[in-house]
Structures are given as structure tokens and as C-alpha cells.
Write a sequence for this structure.
């Protein structure tokens, strides 16, 4: 669902012939209902999408991947690629994000257990990628996350300027956030129910009854 435009292809060929970088960040244009979501799609959001074979690897974090390469070895390209996230329809998108939300719930549990590792300085970093990842770590700990995500995308990021497609997309992402929240709570309840202390309490109650 990611398409390289002719202009991006030309930039890739031109840049990789002379550049010293081992990887490159590329922005994406979110396409929805036949239009580019310039605001609701939070353009430009850069991710590493191009790299020299063998120079680095990706590791799984939540439902996505994160590159294990130092920032000074990563460059940025000017031309974006097109992201057709809904190319197979809303049913497929919902099924896919149902799976993603499960992965994100497990990642949220991991983040909540590592409160001391929250990178506060990264929130003010000039590196947009580092800042976005720190915001994601912080968001796990915030209340009313689905509502906050909708307001952030639709109001603060001017998603309303994308018209009806922008409204629908922002509501879908808020729903996705709500799925993550519910699954995280389910995991927390399951963890508490199977904690050693709880098991000990249950055993003590059984002993008293017997």
C-alpha cells in the first residue's frame, strides 16, 4: 500500500549515488477516499523507508518497526511516497488495526512497567522522530487518550481542513486508540488476576473453607 512516485524514484537514484548515509527517512502522503489528507494525515511525518542492505536492521516495537541505526547515519529525502492505507477497503483496515491494537496493547504494558525510562528531554528535541517516539511513551500514561488523539489530529493539526474525509479518518484513529486502551486494561486485569499475591489469597480462602 506504499507507492514510489517517479519524482521520488529519481531522487533515490540521484542521492544514493553520492550520499554517505546508510539509511533515509521519507515522508508519506496519506491517501483516503481519493484525496491526500494533508492535515489529518499529519504530513510530513518521516520514517526510515530506505537503507543500504546489511547496514542496519529493524526491530519490532508494537505493531511497527524501529531501525537500530545511529541518527548521524540517517539522511532525509525531500520527495514523499504515497500511502494507500485503505486500498483494500475499510473492512480490511479495521481487521488489520484490530491486530495492530493487540500488539500496541502489549507494547503499552511494557512501557508502563518502565516508567523510569521515559525520555523527558526528547519531548523538546529538534529531532522530530525522537520527539514523536517520546510523545508516544507519554501518551500511554495519559487519561482520555481516544478523545485527546481526535482533538490533536482534528483540531490542533487542522484535520478539519481535509473536509469529510479528514473527519472520518480522525474518528477512525480515535477508535483505534480506544481499542488499544481497552485491550491494555484487559491485560492489566488479567495480570492482576494471576499475580502471585492473588493466587496466595485464593489458596488461603480455599484452606479456610476446607
Amino acid at each position: 500500500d506504499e507507492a514510489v512516485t517517479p519524482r521520488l524514484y529519481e531522487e533515490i537514484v540521484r542521492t544514493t549515488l553520492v550520499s554517505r548515509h546508510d539509511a533515509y527517512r521519507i515522508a508519506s502522503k496519506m491517501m483516503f477516499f481519493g484525496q491526500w489528507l494533508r492535515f489529518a494525515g499529519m504530513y510530513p511525518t518521516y520514517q526510515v523507508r530506505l537503507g543500504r542492505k546489511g547496514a542496519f536492521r529493524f526491530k519490532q516495537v508494537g505493531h511497527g518497526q524501529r531501525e537500530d541505526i545511529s541518527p548521524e547515519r540517517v539522511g532525509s529525502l525531500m520527495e514523499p511516497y504515497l500511502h494507500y492505507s485503505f486500498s483494500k477497503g475499510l473492512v480490511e483496515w479495521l481487521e488489520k488495526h484490530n491486530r495492530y491494537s493487540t500488539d500496541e496493547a502489549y507494547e503499552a504494558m511494557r512501557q508502563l512497567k518502565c516508567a523510569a525510562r521515559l525520555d523527558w528531554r526528547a519531548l523538546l528535541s529538534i529531532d522530530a522522530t525522537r520527539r514523536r517516539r517520546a510523545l508516544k511513551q507519554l501518551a500511554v500514561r495519559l487519561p482520555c487518550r481516544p478523545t485527546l488523539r481526535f482533538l490533536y489530529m482534528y483540531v490542533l493539526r487542522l484535520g478539519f481542513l481535509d473536509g469529510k474525509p479528514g473527519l472520518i479518518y480522525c474518528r477512525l484513529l480515535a477508535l483505534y486508540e480506544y481499542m488499544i486502551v481497552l485491550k491494555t486494561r484487559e491485560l492489566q486485569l488479567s495480570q492482576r488476576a494471576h499475580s502471585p499475591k492473588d493466587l496466595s489469597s485464593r489458596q488461603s480462602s480455599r484452606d479456610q473453607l476446607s
The mean pLDDT is 85. The beta strands are 2-3, 23-32, 35-36, 46-51, 58-61, 64-67, 74-76, 81-83. The two ends are 61 Å apart (CA to CA). The first helix runs from residue 6 to 16.
